[in-house]
Design brief:
alpha+beta, 3-stranded mixed sheet, two-stranded antiparallel sheet, 5 strands, NAD, L-glutamate gamma-semialdehyde dehydrogenase activity, oxidoreductase, Aldehyde dehydrogenase domain-containing protein
């Protein structure tokens, strides 16, 4: 019974997420175990659907050994305009607004309930 529930859950989640992976930006592109002073992780900014770096980076130091291990792209006042333009194109409310699209709100409620049920069976 447990194996069947796990297989059902896997099929359900893979069918739900397959189209999402095709149309999504890669987000998790860092192997955590590989971050070090010699191989620092780099955090980029997302603007107008593209990941961009910067000429200025802020460095986060590893609290265990003091090595710089994460670089974060910093934007100053002169480089903020693309972000402002991108934000001005965003709608004030999204697809998941329960007042504008109650059917979508109910759909995600059903999805959450099914996921909880499958997790309970596993």
């Amino acid at each position: 019974m447990r194996t069947r529930a796990s297989q059902t859950a896997l099929r359900w989640f893979s069918s739900f997420n397959s189209s999402r992976f095709v149309h999504s930006l890669p987000l998790a592109t860092v192997e955590v175990e590989e971050i070090s002073g010699s191989q620092p992780a780099e955090v980029y900014n997302l603007v107008q659907g593209k990941w961009i770096g910067s000429s200025s980076w802020n460095t986060i130091v590893d609290p265990l050994n003091g090595e710089p291990f994460i670089k974060v792209a910093e934007i100053d006042e002169t480089g903020i305009q693309p972000f402002v333009q991108s934000l001005s194109k965003c709608p004030k409310h999204g697809l998941h607004n329960p007042f504008k699209a109650p059917e979508r709100y109910l759909l995600f409620g059903d999805i959450s309930a099914k996921a909880a049920h499958i997790a309970f069976l596993a």
